[in-house]
From TrEMBL:
<dbReference type="InterPro" id="IPR020568">
    <property type="entry name" value="Ribosomal_Su5_D2-typ_SF"/>
</dbReference>
<comment type="similarity">
    <text>Belongs to the IMPACT family.</text>
</comment>
<protein>
    <submittedName>
        <fullName>Uncharacterized protein, YigZ family</fullName>
    </submittedName>
</protein>
<dbReference type="GO" id="GO:0005737">
    <property type="term" value="C:cytoplasm"/>
</dbReference>
<dbReference type="InterPro" id="IPR020569">
    <property type="entry name" value="UPF0029_Impact_CS"/>
</dbReference>
<dbReference type="GO" id="GO:0006446">
    <property type="term" value="P:regulation of translational initiation"/>
</dbReference>
<dbReference type="InterPro" id="IPR001498">
    <property type="entry name" value="Impact_N"/>
</dbReference>
<feature type="domain" description="Impact N-terminal">
    <location>
        <begin position="17"/>
        <end position="119"/>
    </location>
</feature>
<dbReference type="InterPro" id="IPR036956">
    <property type="entry name" value="Impact_N_sf"/>
</dbReference>
<dbReference type="Pfam" id="PF01205">
    <property type="entry name" value="Impact_N"/>
</dbReference>
<dbReference type="InterPro" id="IPR023582">
    <property type="entry name" value="Impact"/>
</dbReference>
């Protein structure tokens, strides 16, 4: 799967005097998607339509809306573009300002799908993978060298370092067993490694 390379972007296309403004967002839930749509509606309140499509959870959740356009001419082609590009955790809102010329069903399908495609091209994408998340706890004597080595590893993403009675490294890694064995070796067997689910990583 792929995701947006940026948190949000806005791209405009014009088709037969109608303006199609595509707002793209990274989103993590349906609730966040709805909030983003509401914000776009407030910002572009005078527009004719605000058609939407979003994909979440690696494609398991997908929704679209024609927002008053003829059924199947807006949200569905927008969603088809997102799915065709294997995008996830993404919301597209295409705001249309009617230019006085009717485009017909085929013209609308091409215009809405084209608006999303152009916006994704402009925003760029990144490859996404789900990596295991580990909490690695070490004493202060081993913390400095381990942090430096963790930051050098290409198969590790260090999210956070927590300082309590021990030092905890919150990491995502390509291979949990391999990293756990490495941590044990670096700490003379004293490191505690706790699995903590998985996280999405940009490659």
């Amino acid at each position: 799967m792929r995701g947006l390379a940026v948190g949000s972007s806005v791209t405009e296309t014009v088709v037969t005097r109608s303006r199609f403004v595509c707002s793209l967002f990274r989103v993590g839930s349906e609730g966040e998607a709805r909030e983003r749509v509401a914000a776009v509606r407030r910002e572009w309140w005078e527009a004719s339509h605000h058609c939407t499509a979003y994909v979440l959870e690696g494609g398991r959740v997908a929704r679209s809306s024609d927002d008053g356009e003829p059924a199947g001419t807006a949200g569905a082609p927008m969603l088809e573009v997102l799915r065709g590009l294997e995008l996830t955790e993404v919301l597209a809102v295409v705001t249309r300002y009617f230019g006085g010329v009717k485009l017909g069903a085929g013209g609308l399908v091409r215009a809405y799908g084209g608006a999303v495609s152009a916006a994704v091209d402009a925003a760029g994408t990144v490859e996404l993978e789900w990596w295991p998340r580990l909490l690695i706890r070490v004493d202060y004597a081993n913390a400095g060298s381990m942090e430096g080595l963790l930051r050098l590893r290409e198969d590790v993403r260090l999210a956070e370092v927590l300082f309590t009675d021990v030092v905890t490294f919150d990491v995502a890694c390509a291979d949990a067993e391999l990293l756990a064995a490495w941590a044990a070796g670096q700490s003379a067997g004293s490191a505690e490694v706790e699995p903590a689910g998985s996280v999405r990583v940009e490659l």
